[in-house]
Structure formats: C-alpha cells, structure tokens
Design brief:
By secondary structure, the protein is mainly α. It has one domain. It is 81% helix and 0% strand. α1 packs parallel to α9 and α5 runs antiparallel to α10. The two termini are 29 Å apart.
C-alpha cells in the first residue's frame, strides 16, 4: 500500500508538470495513467480524474478572472451545450452499467481510447498547422449556435471519458471565435471549471470518485504545474508535444486491444 501511496503524488507531479509545460488538458495523461498504471476500473478513473481536475481548473479560472481574460458570454454559451450533454453521457453510462457492468466498462475503455486518439490528432494539428483563428471582424450571432454545439460535443465526451475539456473544446474554439490567445485559454478554463465540476459531482453521486486518491494526486500536481510553467520557455515544446501525441497513441492502442 505504501508503494501506491508514493506513486500517486508522483503521477500527479508528472501530469501537472506536462500540463504546465504544454498547456494540454491533464485528463489525456491522467486517465490512462490511472487505468494502465494503477489498474483502476474505467468509471473510477474517469470520476476521480474529474474530481482532481475540478480544483486545478478552479485555481486557473480564478487567475484568469483576475487577469480579465475570460469571455463570460462565451462561457455561458458553451455551458448551455456542455452541461446537459455531460449529464446525458453519464446517464447513458449508468444505464449501460445497469444492464452489464463488465460490458459497459469494456465499451468505456474503447471510448477513452478513441478520445485519446482524437486528442493526439488535435495536438499534432496545432503543432504543425498552428491555430487558424477567426479575424475579429468576422464575429457574428451565427457563431453562438456553433459555440453551443462545440460545448455539447465536448461536454458529452468529458462526461463519458473525462477527456476533451482542454484538448477538444479549445482546438475547435480557435477555428470559430475571434478571441486573442489569452482570452481563448481563459475562457476555456473558466468553462471547463463548470463542466468538469458538474460531471465530477454526478460521478461522485454515483460512487465513481475516490476522494482520497484525488487528494494524493493533487499533492504532486500543484508543484508539478508550477515547475512546468517556469520551465515552459526553456523546453522545446513542439518536440515535447509530438512525443506526448505518440504516447497518447500508444495508450490508446493498449486500451483498444
């Protein structure tokens, strides 16, 4: 047991360090680590990761609010789609587990594997093609429906797999909304706090969250994020992101087998 207790803060440190270095969403690393590294059931891995991520996102959202880098109208529009979609995904997972819990876990592993592949492809797209942002003059009311749809897609994926609040939603937002990089990131983190927190509460209600485990992960992740952020300008991020994308692909293949 002491070995597991020692490994959890280490896992948290590794994930926090990578998040600080790359700005990527922590779930794409933490969820496969919990499943493949610690052997947690998929539902417990998803629920615990969401609980762990909620506090991390809350701290980030508070900092961006202080910096005035949050577009609250966009947060609202994203939440209109994401919150009900995340609850629908958790409801679907609960219904599947009531029929055959073992088969539902197999399907959930497959879904997480596919989500990791999607996250890896989006990461590579941003590395090699950059973020083609919409010019500020092109913002229109028609974007609201698209933003709500992006929120719904991301919310369903987050509720089901915990992956998507930082990798999928932000990657899609840069294609349709005319915000600066700082406000895009701040808006995404503020919205992710609502989305991840809502999904975490639903998973906690269903008994899918190990609070003690999440607390041990946070012990390591906080210094990891701080160190990664300080080293961000000294490390070749492009090479690191390509390597992480490869790691996600390997994890996805193992989950899909």
């Amino acid at each position: 047991m002491w070995c597991i207790d020692w490994l959890l803060p280490l896992f948290g440190f590794i994930v926090g360090f990578l998040v600080g270095l790359t700005g990527m969403g922590g779930a794409v690393v933490m969820t496969p680590l919990l499943m493949l590294g610690l052997g947690l059931p998929p539902t417990t891995a998803v629920g615990t990761d969401l609980a762990y991520a909620t506090l991390t996102k809350l701290a980030g959202a508070w900092q961006h609010w202080r910096q005035a880098t949050v577009d609250f109208q966009m947060v609202r529009d994203l939440a209109l789609g994401s919150l009900p979609a995340s609850l629908a995904a958790i409801g679907l997972l609960t219904w599947l587990r009531q029929g055959d819990a073992g088969l539902a876990d197999v399907w959930l592993e497959q879904a997480i594997g596919l989500a990791l592949i999607l996250a890896a492809l989006l990461m590579l797209q941003r590395v090699f093609l950059g973020d083609a942002r919409v010019p500020p003059t092109e913002r229109s009311t028609g974007h609201r429906a698209v933003v709500i749809a992006i929120g719904a897609l991301g919310g369903f994926l987050v509720g089901l797999t915990s992956v998507g609040s930082g990798s999928l939603i932000l990657a899609l937002l840069v294609l349709v909304v005319p915000l600066s990089a700082e406000r895009l990131v701040g808006t995404d983190i503020a919205h992710a706090t609502l989305l991840v927190g809502t999904a975490a509460l639903a998973h906690f209600y269903l008994g899918h969250v190990d609070l003690a485990l999440a607390g041990q992960l946070l012990v390591g992740s906080v210094p990891g994020v701080l160190l990664g952020s300080r080293l961000m300008l000294r490390v070749p991020r492009r090479a690191l992101q390509v390597g992480l994308a490869g790691l996600l692909m390997v994890s996805a293949v193992r989950l899909l087998q």
